[in-house]
Amino acid sequence: MILLRRCALLLCYSILFSFTLSADWRDKTELLIYSPRYFGPNAFPIPELRSGLVGSRFEAEVRGEYHYYSGDKTKDLYGRLFLPIVRGRAAIEVSFVYKEDYKMTPETRDERNAVDVTSPISYNGDIVVSGLFQLLKSEKWVDAMFSFNLKTASGGRLCDARFTDAAAYWFDLTLGKNLYQSTNQQFTLRMQGLVGFYCWMTNDMVHRQNDAISYGIGLTGIYRHFTLTSDLSGFHGYEKNGDRPMTLRNHLSYEIKKNIISFRYNHGMKDRLYDTYSLAYIRCF
Q1: N or C: at which end does the chain have fewer Cβ atoms within 10 angstroms?
Q2: Half-sphere exposure (CA, 13 Å, Cβ side) for 185?
Q3: How many domains does the structure of the chain reveal?
Q4: What is the CATH number of the domain that holds 230?
Q5: Is residue 6 part of a domain?
Q6: Could you tell me which residues come within 8 angstroms of residue 259 by beta carbon, excluding any fewer than 6 positions away?
Q7: What's this model's pTM, rounded to 2 decimal places?
């Protein structure tokens, strides 16, 4: 009888302790700051600066990424599908983060009001669905492309400030123009620029969403099978709470027989704390 009582008391204490932990976890999420500076590297995607032309090929990409910051080291797999609807005129792109893994320092965990420094469970990231539309295509003037992008609330580990568990969307206008092209068309130098609007939901009961102006400017050089692109991109939020990330992106790719190997190095600035290294394989159809 005494043993049964002790077991019952132990069970009650265990249940009470688990409820206490659950309450603490939920209470702490109210302290999270919904901005790029205080979340993981994949929570707030910076809009991709494209060439200003809608692609005409089907593409499937797998990319391994390593995000480095002195207070957080993150690894993940990134996948992307590019599906032309009307070749060269309209397309749909779907991208997602798979199996993110991280290790934060205790200082970063406390700064972000997170619970753990590493994840005790496996989790995936958000899905981004994009629609791309060619507005203008002119060698004499400029190429103009419009895109609309929606980020789902499917990412995990909100308690560790990895993904926001809230929707976001952005739309932008991209202009591109060839500055130079050799007579044999083996070398091309192109410039592109982007301006748009970026919006995401927050946990602030007064300001339920944060709005930002997105921007980007870059150059692309193409020589035979090699392509090198560099751009400076980011967005500028209005709450001034770590919502103004900027990144210098460098992308080198080599294509042979519809197979592309690409390497990226992104240097984070201002509220983008991470440097990112990635290696990808892209198959075109």
Answers
A1: N
A2: 0
A3: 1
A4: 2.40.160.40
A5: no
A6: 281, 282, 283, 284
A7: 0.88
